[in-house]
Each structure stands twice: as C-alpha cells, then as structure tokens.
Amino acid sequence: MKTAYILLIVAALYVTCTSCSQQPPNTQIMNHTNNPVFSKTDTGKVALSNDEWKKILSPEVYHIAREKGTERPYSSKYEEFNDIGTYYCAVCGNALFRSDTKFESGCGWPSFYEPISKSSVIYEADNSYGMRRTEVMCGRCKSHLGHVFDDGPKPTGLRYCINGVVLDFEKAKEAEKKYDAEHPQS
Ligand SMILES: [Zn+2]
C-alpha cells in the first residue's frame, strides 16, 4: 500500500515536470490572458472606461494608451528593429502597421509612413504643450498611439511616430505557422 502511494507521488511529480519542460522558454511573448477584449480577428469597436482598462492593462501600457503618455525616446525595442511582420495594437489586437512601411526616422520612436488600412487608425487635433500636432489613435479601441507628422518619406510623405509600448509585433513566419495550424491541408 505504501509503495503504491510513493509510486503515485513519483508519477505526479513526473507529470508536473514534463508539463513544465513543455512550456515555451520564450517569455517575451506578450501576455494578453487577462485582457478579454484583445483579439486579432474581432474588428468590433471596443469602448471601456478607464477604470476597466486599468484592471486589464499593465501600468506602462495604461499610461501611454489611456493617459496619452509618451515613452522615453530611444527606449523602445522596436525603434531599431527590422523584422518582417505586422504591428498590432497592444491594447486590443487591432492590426496597425506592416513592417515594410517602417523606416528609420531617427526621432527616437518607431516610425511608419502608412497604416495598414484607412480604418486601422483615427486622428484628432492635439494642441497640447503649445504645439499643433495630429494625434494618432487605434481605430478599434481609441487608445493613444502617437502622432503623425508631414515630414515622412515617399510615397505618403507622412511620419507616424508611435510609442513602442502600445505595439505588439508578430513575425510574418509566426503568423504563417499559425495560419497553417488553423487551416491544415487535407
Ligand atoms: Zn487598439
């Protein structure tokens, strides 16, 4: 009887350890499990109160997205980052920019010359801090992303200066793999 009990414990330990080792070692993937509105497929508008956002978002993302904060220049991992893929809104999962529209502006923030579609972002006049700027917000959840200026490269001549904190990058290959897994060839 005692032996069986010990065997059971050993078995339980083995199962626990096996499941541990199967967890992906890369913890860089952003954790959206506490965020019920985050979706890369749902395009329905999201309107939550700031009290609700506060419960869902990390303090860093909340400050930029909901309090129109600005991250320190040259602090974003996406500032000098050239991987091929898609940039999503880190707040709601809305697709915002494609990597092939990203360029090195030298301004200290990830910069793009064009959003992924007309409705992916929305604009508002921003006259704060004695400047006349155009604010860029997520077209799905209205989170603050950054500003757009008219000193960008061709073909648009625009420079979308975006806080990396509110961007969530997905490599093209990862997207492809996910697509293949969801649509297995028969
Ligand atoms: Zn969003």
Please characterize this protein's 3D structure.
Strand 3 and strand 4 (111-112) form a beta hairpin. The chain has 4 helices and 9 strands, in the order αααβββββββββα. The protein has one domain (31-182): Beta Complex (Metal Binding Protein, Guanine Nucleotide Exchange Factor, Chain A), CATH 2.170.150. The chain is globular. The termini are far apart. 27% of the residues are buried. Helix content is 25%, strand content 22%. The chain is an alpha+beta fold and 186 residues long. Strands 3-4-8-7-6-5 form a 6-stranded antiparallel beta sheet. It has a 3-stranded antiparallel beta sheet with strand order 2-1-9. Residues 89, 91-92, 94, 138, 140-141, 143 line the site of zinc ion. Keywords: Metal-binding, Oxidoreductase, Signal, Zinc. It is an enzyme of class 1 (oxidoreductase).
Major sheet, described briefly? 6 strands, antiparallel
For the secondary structure, the number of strands is 9
Strand fraction equals 15-25%
Question: Quick one: CATH class?
Answer: Mainly Beta
The CATH architecture is Beta Complex
Bound molecules: zinc ion
**What Rg is obtained from the alpha carbons, in whole angstroms?**
21 Å
Whole-Å distance between the termini?
50 Å
Task: Summarize the amount of helix as a percent range.
Answer: 25-40%
Instruction: Identify low-pLDDT runs.
Output: 13-29
CATH-derived topology: Metal Binding Protein, Guanine Nucleotide Exchange Factor, Chain A
Helix count?
4
Mean pLDDT: 86
User: H/E element string?
Assistant: HHHEEEEEEEEEH
